[in-house]
Amino acid sequence: QLQLVESGGDLVQPGGSLRLSCAASRSSLNYYVVGWFRQAPGKEREAVSCISTGGRTAKYADSVKGRFTISRDNDKNTVDLQMNSLKPEDTAHYYCAAAAPRISGDCPTDMRRFGSWGQGTQVTVFS
Predict the structure, then answer these.
(1) What are the residues facing 61 on neighbouring strands?
(2) How far apart are CA 77 and CA 44, in angstroms?
């Protein structure tokens, strides 16, 4: 019943930056843990980052740590993923997903925890 829509995907050169945004409709995103996942053709979907409901806890995959930053603006009902220093291996379809928190500061990366998913947005890093 929670509808999520991603935006911001684009074609970008290596070393470039993109900012992805996840917006919610039908329900408030403020009460959900939000995660970003990505899937490249022929590969399994993997967790990129997650953020707790309050935005004070965040986790990142080792492959993106130091380059990506997740944030949320509960006033705008959005969660963003700032991606810097992009590499060709970052090329994938990126999805945001929402999960009901279980504990304070909950920030899971297991995709099985997430029940609502957006349609995804394509990020292509190529020169």
Answers:
(1) none
(2) 29
Contact criterion met (CB below 8 Å) for 36 and 20: yes
pLDDT tens across 38-64, in order?
999 999 999 999 999 999 999 999 999
Distance CA 52, CA 56 (A): 6
Give the separation between CA 93 and CA 37, rounded to whole angstroms.
Answer: 8
Instruction: Give residue 74's pLDDT.
Output: 81
> Which are the contacts of 11, defined by CB distance < 8 A and separation ≥ 6?
124, 126
Q: Which amino acid is at 54?
A: G
d(CA 52, CA 106): 6
More confident residue, 8 or 75: 8
What's the CA gap between 51 and 118, in Å, rounded?
A: 16
DSSP E strand boundaries for the chain = 3-7, 11-12, 18-25, 33-39, 46-51, 58-60, 68-73, 78-83, 92-99, 116-117, 121-125
The whole-chain average pLDDT of the chain stands at 96
